[in-house]
Fold these 3 entries.
Entry 1:
Amino acid sequence: MKKFFTYFALTVFLIIGCYTAIEMSKLSPTFNGEKVNVVELYNNPSKYENNDADGVANLMVKQTIDKTHAINAVTAIVFDFRGYDTLGESFVLFTAISGTVVILRNAMKGRAD
Amino acid sequence: MSNKNVKVKEYIIKSAADFFAPIGLILGIYIILHGHLSPGGGFQGGVIVASAAVLIYLGYGYETATNTLKPNLLKKSEAIGALMYSFFALLGIFYAANFCRNVFYNVGNPGDLFSSGTIFLMNFAVGYKVLTGVGFLILLMFGLLANKEA
């Protein structure tokens, strides 16, 4: 019975994932690189005209203060636009410290091996 | 230190620890709290605060460091920091938006200390989590070192 519920849940997740992937493929792309002149960007990158950038680059670079009221753009990206990333990062640290506690448990009790 | 013939003058290390530990604590807490205004953030400030544990160990030994910093308390505080981050991320759902949404970002002016909504709070949560976690890790490894020496 337990095995049945496991496979049922996995099948439901697979169906939802396939549905989401099919629906997302129908949407228009946010950034497809059509406006980027690659030869011009490679020859003189400092003078390249990037005022009409689109997609996530435009949102993160130009509208940071309007959207978050944070002056440090890196903190605004790390804690606001990419909050999931920081959540995973901090739980990676939590897992590493838990593993160290399991290995070095004897040192906590004052017993040397 | 295991060599008995060489007598290390501990006064130098002790006075250096006395001088640098408060500076490290205050600089680390400043970097955590000003994460949205100046370079730095939760991770970097937390590691700077945890370096004060190293200075206390170097100056006063393992017993004083564990009596001062309480490793069991640090271990529980790290889990509290992780839960704080999850709670501040869940505030978006309570305010009928999506997860990790900055719901009250327009509270203060840009440039104030208490501005930018959940960025400030999440920054503090991550800094608290990193300072307790890395401090606990350092004390754990120094405990192994102290047992090997004795």
Entry 2:
Amino acid sequence: MNSREDILGRVRNGLQRNGSNAAVGREEMQSSLSSRTQGPKPVFDSEPKALLERFRLKSEKQSSTVDIVAQESDVPTAINRYLTAMNLPKSAVAWPSLAALDWALAGLVVEARGARDADLVGITGCFCAVAETGSLMLCSSAATPSSVSLLPETHIAVVPAARIVPYMEDAWALARTELGSLPRAVNFISGPSRTGDIELTIVLGAHGPYRVHLVIVEN
Amino acid sequence: MARVRVGLFVTCLVDLMRPRIGFAALKLLEGAGCEVIVPDTQTCCGQPAWNSGDAPGAVALAKKTIAEFEAFEYVVAPSGSCSDHIRTEYPVLLAEESEWLDRATALASRTYELTDFLVTVMKVDSVPGKHQGTVTYHDSCTGLRSMGIKQQPRALLAKLKGLELTEMNGCEECCGFGGTFSVKFGEISAAIAERKCENILASGAQAVVGGDLGCLLNIEGKLRRMGNESTQVLHVAELLAGED
Amino acid sequence: MEIKSMYFKANAKTKLADVALQGNLENARGRFVTTRAEAIKELDDFEGTRDAAEAIRNRVIDNLDLWLERFEHKALDTGAKVLWAKDGAEVCRLVIEIAKRHDVKKVTKSKSMLSEEAGLNQALEAAGIQPVETDLGEYILQVDNNEPPSHIIAPAVHKGLNDVADLFHKVHGTPRKTDIPALTREAREVLRQHFLSAEMGLSGGNFLVAETGSVALVTNEGNGRMVTTMPRVHVVITGIEKVIPTLEDLSTLMRVLPRSATGQSISNYFSILTGVKKPEEHDGPEHLYFVLVDSGRADVVGSDFHAMLRCIRCGACMNHCPVYQTIGGHAYGWVYPGPMGSVLTPLYAGMENSIDLPHAATLCNQCGIVCPVKIPLPDLLRKLREKQTERGLRPLTERIGLRLWAWVAQQPRLYALGARIGARYLKWLAGGTDRIRLLPTAPEWSLGRDFPAPEGKTFRELYAARKHQAKETP
């Protein structure tokens, strides 16, 4: 007997599986898959302004920094301002989906591609953002490679305010509607990478970015 | 009005080590207007057997205790641990024997820890004890986490004029007793007790008070071994009942 | 992993005497407990969320065969391959086969307790494949001569800053640093090169989502993302019990997991990985394998210990356990320490190899109270004690002593006599003082504390005398 059959056989034994309880079990399984029951969630104001404010506060709590700009065309200038203030290089790798922004006009050298080890600044958008925890939801694709939010020491994310949803459950609903099936990688990112493995002392910048900067676009 | 008939479950540890706790419980219950009966055939609730993996022994002692106490309106014990064993574990132990299960369930619903009984059932508004000084309260694990004994002893202690309650850090943390654990893993048990005692000493209280004698023996033994001679270790019933 | 749980008591003794370890444990004790307490306050209905989390886990383990088939079906649809392993040896064999098939020389690993169970690193090395642990804690242990972890979330929590400073100085040949960020940076630079050069990444799985055939990974360092993004091959090793139904269920569980584990509202990175990279994509593995592992789990299904399969490996039980807090994780002698380990080790690594573990708990139920999926750990420990007795695994003297005691306690007159003698004997031992320094009947008690003297007469005697007196003097 192969291992699969052996393991499943013993699981079935343990559950005293038979034809009738299998039918009941299948029904229960189907119903929990289709009903998608949600658990209790923390209650908060889900008006757009309140959502933005909560997202900002929670993001800052996760050690991200936040800038708010009026429209998407303001993003390159805002990023330039941040890089200047942080004394960081003015060259970056960005998601191909952001290639259309006028980076050069703002004085930035931006290459739209997947990230390499040498890239110091990575610019991404996000699929949406979750106000409950201050998390970005990034979905991988050719135009939105995962490595851009991972390899560079600085990760800058552009977050349209309209894409801030209250809960992770809302993000799944959005993904089902807009993407159909899940992309290869969904990454929820909540602040810079960190570790507490030496004396439980939190250090930012473990293997991923040392800093995460969010540029929220209001309109 | 007929007085409430209460069977006092003394507990084996009180019987052996601190009879005065049993008498204090008696006094408090009588003072609250109960008719108290102490069945003289009672021994142990069987928790040590249950916790040591001797299910048959635990079942036999459960049946014996049920038979001795089921005639009373209430069963009260000056211990969260023993009363919880009757209340929570007897129905589990006897789950397979339907007649006994019914009897266990019936008894369980009428079994109380002493301070819980005085506050919740008898709703006492005064206690006879007197105490001058600061005390800190150790919440014993089973009473706290299984029976919800937390405010009841504090509410009663608050009725003693001159008593000041100073909460210690980690008052809900285990003292390291754990019944047979304390004699199987003496060094670990004593090390846990040391943390408890450090918290007691840091509270600055003149006495540490609790509702379970096992914990109190453990705490007193550790305090004395640490060289502390001055901190009193008292059962809550002793304080509430006062001197005879 | 070789089991050393039979030496629990001797090992615990060593740990109690280890001054440096005691300092590190004290540091950890306060932090884990307070951060969790703060984090759960953020939820309006933490208890309701716990109930929901428990129900989700029950839903799956109560029909585990069906959910496994469902997960497998969906995972195959995404282009992943699904393999099954009965035990650690088969895990090692399968992983090595995959590595050879894809011409892998180096494997970067994010934390997997199952790989510890299987002893996978040793097997990979023996097959000429280099395993590199990339969780900082696991890396520290790997370069320290493959020391086993002492905690499932913070594997190197038993080590202090000075230990790590000495270790990195020795292993990396760099000047000794005592600055935690600098040490972290040093490890980052070493490990970054491994991330970029490894052909295969290996991870555990926090959850397997049946709805989508995905694996969910929770990390803070980003190493989990690295090992699942950079190499050509990704292998997920996970227990068969890790399936959950839907993405909504994942959200519910994520409200309790990081809070219970590290006191975070959410972990930094939470990745849901589904299938392999598309040809036009820049990153991600071309091959994805799931190795679904039994190693004792299947036999727990439907047993007295079924509830243990709910465990989501947060570590809250050990963080809050007075025994773990006092001796740390190594004394437990296998992969999983603390209360969950004292249940899992006998079940997965042999009851006869871990006689002490189910008894090494005060049954204070702090673990049961904090468990995010409401596993009644003290009840399970007690049940294991019962099984030990049934199988004759306890020492004969203990078994006879217990039976004798239980028998005497059923004979009220004999018991009363015994108690009378006992009270007097103990009083005599105290020799007129209020304490007994050495208790001959229970020497373990006396190792660290005195035993208070009894009053000398039993309640029963005094009560009878009082009643008698009341009759005499009406």
Entry 3:
Amino acid sequence: MTARSITWARRRTTLARFWRDFRSHHSAMAGLAILAVFALVAIFAPLLADPDGLNVAKATAKSHQPPSADYWLGTDQNGLSILTLLVHGTRVSLIVGLSATAIAIVIGTLVGIMAGFYGGWARSLLMGFTDWFLVIPFLPLAIVLATVLGASLFNIIVVIGVTSWPGTARLVCAQTLSVRSRPYMERAKALGAGDWHQMTRHVLPNVMPVVLAHVVLTVSIAILSETTLSFLGLGDPTAQSWGNILDAAYGTGAMSNGEWWFVLPPGICVVLVVLAFTLVGRALEVVLNPRLKEGR
Amino acid sequence: MTAFLTGTRGYVIRKIGWSLGTMLFVVVFNFFLFRLLPGDPIGLYSRGRNMAPEQLIKLRAELNRPIGAQFLEYLSNPFASTINSVRFNRPVWELVAERVWPTVLLVGTAILIASVAGVWLGIRSGWRRGGTFDRVTTGVTNTLYAMPEFWVGMVLLIALPFFPSGGISTPGVTGFLDTVLDTAWHMVLPVTALAIVYLAEYTSIMRASLVDELRQDYLQLARAKGLREDLVRRRHAVPNALLPTMTLIFLNLGFVIGGAITVETVYSWPGLGLLSYEALRGPDIPLLQAVFLLFSIGVVVFTLLADLLYAVLDPRVSTQ
């Protein structure tokens, strides 16, 4: 048995145990199922709804139509099928949520590990900076950044990414501090491991499990943020997201006309996806961090 | 130096120093962000609007001065009355001042309702965690938490069309009592929308704090003394759990502001949130800067108050 095969066998048992623990959380499994459905919708969006249905110039239906056999969820102000917008909006909302989270996690992990590993004044400086970002109210900051950068899909991802990292940085810093004081770090140092080796080989793998749960929760917040920013008119006008649909509904008086089919579906999609990510994230937290198990 | 910074006095000084540093950071950020932009700043400030030529000349002269001089002037008084809004053509701080009270009224009422109800729900579900009530509450809380506030507002408007669809008052209503009733009538929907979402936040905070207390030995002792379960909860667990809840409610002002911006937009509530929306839809950069500065400083001040309040309520924090 080589060292490698032992490592892999150990990883497999860990993974199996993790999955067994995770499966016992029924709400998290429900969340996972919801996410799977939305992921499929996002991947196969062009097959489920003809992309031509997003083109205002090709719209044939009347605007503001209630649901009918042809348009299951009615039409918007341009005569586009709301169901088509919804299907393609899934793609945009998920892409923005996931990419923005990726940016936030990379920045947060980098800052957190540096701060926790080097300690001293580096930590004071980096965490002081983090605290500043943490205290500046999120939505006004995001609005200011989005206004300055201009409305595009890429910019909205950047805006949500660079405003969402402070929480991650704090968490990673705290974890790094606890890992750093463990004896095996001393052993690694005695064997001649450099800073880079210690950070990537010892600190990072130990911090990752806690970060993973945090990642999933961050995605849910990022999707909510995208919806809010798009509703305020800061989203990409060419990429239909759920927030853009709500913005259009608000802008064309859907509420005073009682057009529930214009307002309810996009919101329900947001709630389902955000709730699903939250449920999965909460379960991951408990599974990966046994101290959180309540009442033990 | 070290002796100077220990104990309660040191704690207070450190917190105030940090708050001042943060405010400085916000002011610097606010100044440079809008000047880092590529292109002609005049275009950004006016956004294609027709401005009077003398106004343009004045603005260009202002922007042509050395950046250091401009910065020092901004730093000396970020609240100067000379800064004009592009859209309203009035000093921005005058506009902001008019809009403060409607927001305080709306958000204050929503927080009051949500925190009282949230604390009560949090106590009930946390005390019997894992029970039916707790499971239902947690499920509902998670769902409410996943709802964008403005969407709740839009749905309420469709579901309850007999309430006023926006604004703070009906034109023509006079007399003190009538005005109060009229405003209250206009507040019902926006307050409900905000309170629903804040409620989720406060319930989960209170529940988590109470669950943290449940493991403490002093509760065991209180039971061993023969106190009824009811009294153990009311006299021992809840007061201790309220402590972190109160500070967190203070600390979450940033979250509260986010809700106010979108809900005020949906209901055309003439407060700071709607003003932010009007500023960003322009975009009206000077107004946006002013609103951002006010929100940020508001949050910093409330964070400081929360820290100081905590030190008063729990002296252990400052003596460590």
